[in-house]
Amino acid sequence: PRGIRQMAKLEIVYEDSALVAVNKPSGLASIPGRGEKDSALEQLARQLKLPMSGSEDPRIRVVHRLDKDTSGVLLFAKTIDAQRHLSHQFQNNWAVKEYLALVIGRPAEESGVIDAPIRPDKQRVGYMKVDKHGKRALTEWRVEETFRGLTLVRAMPKTGKTHQIRVHMQHMGHPLAVDPLYGPTGEMYGQGIFLSRFKRNYRLGKWQEEKPLIARLTLHAQKLTVKLPDGKELSLEAKMPKDFAATLKMLRKYWR
To answer: What is the full DSSP assignment across 10-65?
Structure first.
């Protein structure tokens, strides 16, 4: 119908009769929620012309979630059996997850493990924090690439707490370069990453306004490995979104 903006199609990274995985863009919620106009679940159901509720199969069934502003591999089941099988792996932390995170500063080590319990922050609604009374949260990480002032880190959460990587990286002293909840505020990164910050003699035309290279959470769920019902391993990979890739390209060029 007129008036409804036609959303770009979700990029499907894998599909068979039991499951389907997409490369979720940043800014799109995983599932319907209060105040959300659309979600990956609803969009995929429309795209594949499958229901997203009811007891009949096939239908699009939720297995896990990504934060709204995180891009990357998001997996759905098409049958109740596949949903049970996959959900069990996430609940028991058997699914292997790998994220790419662009963070501020440079870690002193090349790799490490953050073992710090997390719980909701009672002072601030929607925030999580490291707290000894929280639930155990474990993140392995290693440096992938370093720049002047920023580092690309591969983070491998071994537990699945809300905002885990974001809170753990902040706790380590290296918050995500752009993160409205846990990142630094102010001009340098609060509004995004701007080329003028690191390209010498950067100039704009008279009436031009500089747009950020990336203005959203610098976190991408790049890889996900799960076991299929027949015991075989399935590794899924989501290519990096254009804004994230463009940012890294410019950092490699001007800020080594």
So the answer is: PEEEEE-SSEEEEEEPTT-BSS--TT-S-BHHHHHHHHHT--SSSS-SS--EE---
CB atoms within 10 A of CB 1: 3
Residue 187 predicted with pLDDT over 60:
no
Q: Which residues are catalytic?
A: 67
Q: In this predicted model, what pLDDT tens digit does every residue of 122-176 receive, in sequence order? A: 999 999 999 999 999 999 999 999 999 999 999 999 999 999 999 999 999 999 9
Q: Could you identify the residue written with the tokens 């003699």?
A: 201
166 conformational bin, left if phi > 0, alpha if psi -120 to 50, beta if neither: alpha
Averaged confidence pLDDT in the chain: 92
Q: Is 73 exposed, middle or buried (0-12, 13-18, 19+ CB in 10 A)?
A: buried
Residues in CB range of 56: below 8 A, 6 or more apart: none
| Count of CB atoms situated within 10 Å of the CB of 5 | 7
pLDDT grade for 4, boundaries at 50, 70 and 90: very low
Please state, in angstroms and rounded to a whole number, the distance separating the CA atoms of residues 129 and 168: 9
Could you tell me which residues come within 8 angstroms of residue 114 by beta carbon, excluding any fewer than 6 positions away? 137, 138, 139, 141, 168, 171, 172
Q: How far apart are CA 45 and CA 53, in angstroms?
A: 10
Kindly report the pTM of this predicted structure: 0.93
Residue of 229, 227, 128 lying closest to 179 (CA atoms): 128
For residue 185, the model assigns a pLDDT of: 66
Q: How far apart are CA 253 and CA 204, in angstroms?
A: 19
Residue 198 pLDDT exceeds 70: yes
DSSP state of 9: P
Name residue, tokens 């537990």. 159
